[in-house]
Amino acid sequence: MPDEVLWESVIYQSIWQEGVQIGEARGRARGEARGESIGAANKQREIAINCLREGLPVEVIAHATGFSIAEVQQIQQALNESLKIKISSVISDTTPNCGLFEFSN
Length: 105
Description:
By secondary structure, the protein is mainly alpha-helical. It has one domain (2-94). 82% of the residues lie in helices and 0% in strands. It has helices at residues 2-53, 58-65, 69-94. The longest helix is centred in the first third of the chain and has 52 residues, at 2-53. The mean pLDDT is 83.
């Protein structure tokens, strides 16, 4: 009887280990697929930003990247806001206040 219990325990442990290995492999595959998907989306966004900086029409960028026109417009708006903040920061950091103009951050 104890040999049978020991043998069953070995079988269950083997099945459990196999299940763990399968689960880990599935998890890695899902993680890699998700990472690749995120990386591809980030690359498309980078391409859209570069195209916007070059002055290409929103419709052309949407067609080239697969984004909707609304998505490209959102990227454009975020890019414009980012530039406003940078320009404002540069102006306030480099322009002495001579009393004629008032700069606010």
